[in-house]
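Anyone up for a design puzzle?
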């Protein structure tokens, strides 16, 4: 283990000594100790930044949260371990805040963590380097920002729908979600985060949504011509599109044109704080439901998608976002949220789609709570239509169970 410099902030003498001895026992001897935030601040001023700070939260005077803020603001620690007698939910929340402040949080423990646990955490830190994980910024392309509205509109043939399968617990593909990509001839395949700012600036979200809707319905129709059954498709719809008086009529015409039953189309409604649904949009939603379309409340539990909207609007599906699902097997709070949502959905006779299923642990945790429809990298990433068709053929031929990804590694595409 390489030499590390560590700060311990702990006001209980015995626990301070125990932590110090614990570090010495695993070969860490450059240790600063402090019983208060003031003492810790002075020690850092004299000795400079540390590799790791081990912080208590409940102290006399300023609490450990003030220390964490000081460490982050002044870049005085690369990594942090929280070690406190506070409730675990409080410790975990402080850890989340520390990550937002830019600190690499190695662990959030209630006292007293064992030598084994701390040794594993510190060893993992050394093996994976001293820097926190790098977040790759979304690429910004001046070429797109410089395009006029007319030039952007002419590019719509390059806006290609990719499709992520929805899978039931018996391994059946029950539908797909359409997620747009821009296949730019120079810049390559762009994700929505990379080109949506340009689309929004040009006020072309309506055009984009309708373009993806057409592609999704065409896919469903081609599937029907091959198999005799329309493939259920889901398309994201921004609320401002519902403000168009002709939106319901446009959807009805598109369904008739492609020969797809309305029941095979799910419109996923994405709300924003700047564009909440009004009575006119509610009327459009009702027209679509009467037509037979399914309506999904996307990213339920985040943003402005809440219980009140679920009670007010005619949704048929509740979609749980990946934030609640990822790592659920190790997080009891997430599991409780998902279990509550599934129970509520059953009582309200809503179907449920769970996004963000990435691991076997996630799958087993969901199985223990219920059997909703699922999406996620564990099954497949979004892919173009040709790859989707091959993926479905391979799955049907081999009868792939829910035990791992069912696509060749070389065919993975970036997700939204």
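Challenge accepted. My sequence:
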């Amino acid at each position: 283990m390489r030499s590390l410099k560590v700060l311990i902030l702990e006001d209980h003498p015995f626990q301070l000594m125990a932590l110090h001895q614990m570090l010495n026992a695993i070969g860490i001897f450059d240790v600063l100790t402090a019983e208060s935030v003031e003492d810790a601040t002075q020690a850092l001023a004299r000795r400079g930044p540390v590799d790791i700070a081990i912080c208590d939260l409940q102290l006399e005077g300023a609490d450990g949260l003030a220390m964490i803020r000081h460490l982050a603001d002044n870049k005085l620690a690369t990594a942090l371990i929280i070690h406190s007698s506070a409730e675990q939910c409080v410790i975990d929340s402080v850890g989340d805040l520390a990550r937002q402040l830019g600190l690499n949080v190695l662990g959030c423990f209630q006292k007293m963590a064992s030598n084994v646990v701390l040794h594993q955490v510190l060893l993992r830190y050394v093996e994976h380097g001293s820097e926190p994980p790098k977040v790759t910024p979304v690429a910004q392309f001046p070429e797109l920002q410089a395009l006029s509205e007319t030039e952007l509109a002419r590019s719509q043939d390059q806006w290609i729908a990719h499709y992520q399968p929805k899978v039931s617990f018996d391994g059946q593909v029950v539908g797909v979600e359409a997620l747009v990509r821009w296949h730019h001839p120079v810049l390559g395949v762009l994700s929505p985060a990379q080109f949506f700012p340009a689309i929004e600036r040009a006020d072309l979200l309506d055009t984009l949504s309708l373009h993806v809707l057409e592609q999704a319905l065409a896919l469903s129709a081609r599937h029907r011509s091959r198999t005799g059954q329309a493939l259920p498709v889901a398309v994201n719809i921004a609320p401002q599109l519902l403000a168009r008086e002709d939106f319901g009529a446009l959807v009805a015409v598109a369904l008739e044109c492609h020969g797809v039953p309305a029941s095979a189309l799910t419109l996923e409604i994405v709300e924003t704080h700047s564009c909440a649904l009004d009575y006119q949009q509610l009327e459009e939603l009702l027209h679509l439901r009467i037509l037979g379309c399914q309506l999904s409340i996307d990213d339920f539990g985040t943003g402005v998608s809440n219980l009140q909207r679920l009670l007010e609007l005619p949704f048929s599906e509740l979609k749980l976002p990946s934030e609640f699902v990822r790592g659920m097997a190790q997080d009891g709070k997430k599991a409780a949220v998902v279990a509550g949502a599934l129970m509520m959905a059953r009582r309200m006779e809503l179907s449920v789609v769970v996004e963000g299923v990435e691991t076997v642990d996630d799958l087993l945790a969901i199985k223990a709570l219920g059997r909703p429809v699922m999406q996620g990298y564990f099954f497949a990433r979004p892919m173009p239509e040709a790859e989707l068709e091959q993926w479905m053929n391979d799955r049907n031929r081999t009868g792939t169970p829910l035990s791992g990804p069912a696509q060749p590694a070389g065919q993975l595409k970036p997700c939204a």
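A detail worth pointing out: The mean pLDDT is 83.
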